[in-house]
From TrEMBL:
Keyword field: Glycosyltransferase, Membrane, Transferase, Transmembrane, Transmembrane helix
Membrane topology, record value: Multi-pass membrane protein
InterPro entries referenced in this protein's UniProt entry, alphabetically: Glyco_trans_2-like, Glycosyltr_2/OpgH_subfam, Nucleotide-diphossugar_trans
Subcellular location: Membrane
Domain Glycosyltransferase 2-like: residue ranges: 325-517
Parts of the chain that traverse the membrane: 168-186, 198-217, 495-522, 534-554, 566-585
GO molecular function annotations of the record: glycosyltransferase activity
Keyword DNA repair: no
Phylogenetic lineage: Bacteria, Pseudomonadati, Pseudomonadota, Alphaproteobacteria, Hyphomicrobiales
Name this protein carries in UniProt: Glycosyltransferase 2-like domain-containing protein
Length: 614
């Protein structure tokens, strides 16, 4: 039979089985418009009808339909090559009585082959089973889960071990830090204040440079509405993979699935991977209760290696079949057209554009002071500072969500570092070091800020710990980094990474110094005279730091108002960040790979849901 005859026969069989005529016609139309498979379009159009579609395919092929068993008895003809798994449509298993069964999710061409070649091979036909595409994928994944988990945990080490944060400090770095501490202690014991004074002046000027960098960035803000997208044929669109790492997120699963279904991308070309820890029964159950398209896969990940988001993303990367990959968080509500904008941006650029960052906007700023400050900080970062960095071609510290990648680029740079707990910032740095660019797009993703101080504090601790990990990894070979980035980008990177870490750690000490000197001055001591110059520098730094942070956020908001005042609370907010930084430094010594979970909850109001005009 010809392929078109098989499609007609399958359509007739589906109609007799009770599938709605409009769904069958839609699948035909979509397969022609998008140059895709009629069967893939059927599965994409008729959610919840997988068994009916599979049974009708089996009837037309003349073989048995059966759900794939949850077994690991798989034969591989060419060894354990896991690169074939994302596109595989066939799996061979061994039953308890040592009989081989072949499970296949056939295309129209496969059905033609089966009818043409196996009509006289009853022994083979008796062992052949038609199943759903997700059934084949699950069967292969379960059979290779240990191999996948092992590969995901050591991707960056296999690529280049010098980029891995598995070792917190190298021996050389430990010696240098030890020598610095020793010199400072000797200086203090000998009551020679020159070293401490010089260090104070150096860090004060360093902080001033960080402030000036942000003041310069105030000149550029991306508060304008996103430009309209040109029309594009579905046939021109490739497969796009969406990866979402989930842990203890059962409450937001319905909202998440709704947001993924709202993405404006052909359903048959959209692969969505829900990456869950294997022991997270609540989230897995919540996902399995949803009626998902065949291209939405629930992936339980075995507990091998560090339990971190980047390890889960590496696991998903090994199962990705898209030419482009995007990462979302559990509570994200991306703009429906975000994938289209990212794809068209990639199409206009060369292959050295490895990543696009969508802005992250906080939807629940009205809930608490912490959420309000977080929202203001995000506005300054994603709508002012990052666009300025991207426009200048500087190193872009990516956000942990809404990062769009070329799949080939991710593979070429070794994926994510599973031992880094702030994997986004590390990956942005590694992209720049290896010659790739990152840029910004306009259509945003709505997120929720932590509304409780305790939740915010644990999250910020993890971020600081990851930033310290990242900086230590990059500075293992500083001259190599300098050669890779160039002088200008290297200096700006130091102001970004080291500047954030150092300024956060020293901020409370600076306040303490200023208060103690001021107290001595008021009490009539001559300490003020000896430290007057340093005190003035510190005071200028602190005030300019507050004002630059506030100005950057105001430019980003572009006239929009926050639900409350910001400027009076900046000193307290920065102090909380400093405490988180010190806690991160302690954790780096005791529990470097601990991933403190940030809980999420569903959006509570209509202003927290995305639309095409956001």
């Amino acid at each position: 039979m010809r392929d078109r005859d098989i499609e007609v026969a399958l359509a007739a069989r589906l109609y007799r089985a009770g599938l709605a005529k409009i769904l069958i016609l839609r699948a035909f139309g979509d397969s022609i418009a998008g140059k895709t498979s009629f069967i893939d379009e059927l599965y994409a159009s008729a959610r919840g009808e997988d068994a009916v579609i599979g049974q009708c395919i089996a009837d037309v092929a003349g073989v048995v339909f059966e759900y794939a068993p949850q077994t690991t008895g798989i034969f591989l003809r060419s060894g354990p090559d896991i690169t074939v798994l994302p596109h595989a449509r066939i799996a061979t298993t061994l039953t308890p009585d040592s009989n081989a069964l072949i499970y296949i999710a056939p295309t129209i061409e496969d059905i033609a082959f089966v009818k043409r070649r196996l009509s006289g091979r009853k022994d083979v036909a008796a062992r052949l089973r038609v199943t759903t595409p997700s059934g084949v994928r699950d069967l292969l994944r379960i059979g290779h889960q240990e191999l996948l988990a092992d590969k995901a945990a050591r991707m960056i080490e296999d690529f280049r071990c010098e980029y891995s944060a598995k070792t917190v400090l190298t021996g050389q770095q430990g010696i240098l830090i030890g020598m610095l501490i020793t010199c400072l202690l000797l200086d203090a014991l000998e009551k020679q204040q020159l070293g401490w004074r010089g260090l104070h002046v150096f860090f004060s000027l360093f902080f001033l440079a960080c402030v000036l960098l942000r003041l310069v960035a105030c000149k550029r803000a991306s508060g304008d509405d996103p430009p309209p997208l040109p029309a594009i044929s579905p046939a021109e669109l490739p497969v796009y993979t969406v990866m979402i790492a989930l842990y203890q997120e059962a409450d937001v699963v319905p909202q998440l699935v709704k947001a993924m279904l709202a993405l404006n991308w052909p359903r048959s070309k959209l692969q969505v991977l829900f990456l869950c820890e294997a022991d997270d029964a609540a989230t897995l159950t919540a996902l399995r209760c949803q009626v998902l398209p065949q291209s939405f896969d629930i992936i339980p990940i075995a507990g091998y290696g560090p339990r971190t988001k980047p390890k889960a993303l590496n696991y998903g990367l090994l199962l990705s079949k898209g030419a482009f990959v995007v990462v979302y968080d559990a509570e994200d509500r991306p703009h429906p057209d975000q994938l289209l904008e990212a794809f068209q941006h990639f199409q206009r650029a060369d292959e050295k554009l490895g990543c696009l960052q969508a802005p992250l906007k906080i939807a629940n700023a009205h809930e608490s002071l912490v959420a309000r400050m977080f929202a203001f900080e995000y506005a300054a970062h994603f709508q002012s500072f990052l666009p300025w960095l991207a426009h200048r071609g500087l190193v872009l510290p990516l956000g942990g969500s809404s990062n769009h990648f070329r799949y080939d680029c991710l593979i070429a740079i070794g994926g994510w570092d599973p031992h880094n707990v702030t994997e986004d910032a590390e990956l942005g740095t590694r992209l720049a070091r290896l010659g790739y660019r990152a840029d910004m797009i306009a259509r945003a993703t709505l997120e929720d800020a932590p509304a409780e101080a305790g939740v915010w504090f644990r999250q910020r601790t993890r971020w600081f710990k990851g930033w310290i990990q990242t900086w230590l990894v990059q500075m293992r070979k500083p001259f190599t980094v300098l050669a890779q980035l160039g002088f200008r980008r290297f200096i700006v990177y130091q102001l970004l990474a080291a500047g954030m870490i150092v300024s956060s750690l020293l901020y409370p000490l600076t306040l303490l110094f200023m208060l103690s000197v001021s107290f001595c001055w008021l009490s009539g001591s001559d300490v003020f005279a000896r430290h007057q110059d340093i005190l003035c520098i510190d005071l200028i730094n602190i005030v300019m730091g507050y004002l630059s942070f506030h100005r950057l956020g105001q430019r980003a908001l572009a006239g929009a108002t926050m639900p409350g005042r910001i400027l009076p609370w900046i000193p307290l907010y920065w102090l909380l960040m400093s405490l988180a930084a010190w806690r991160a430094l302690g954790q780096l010594n005791t529990r470097p790979f601990l991933w403190e979970k940030t809980p999420h909850r569903p959006a509570r109001s209509t202003q927290e849901t995305p639309d095409r005009n956001q």
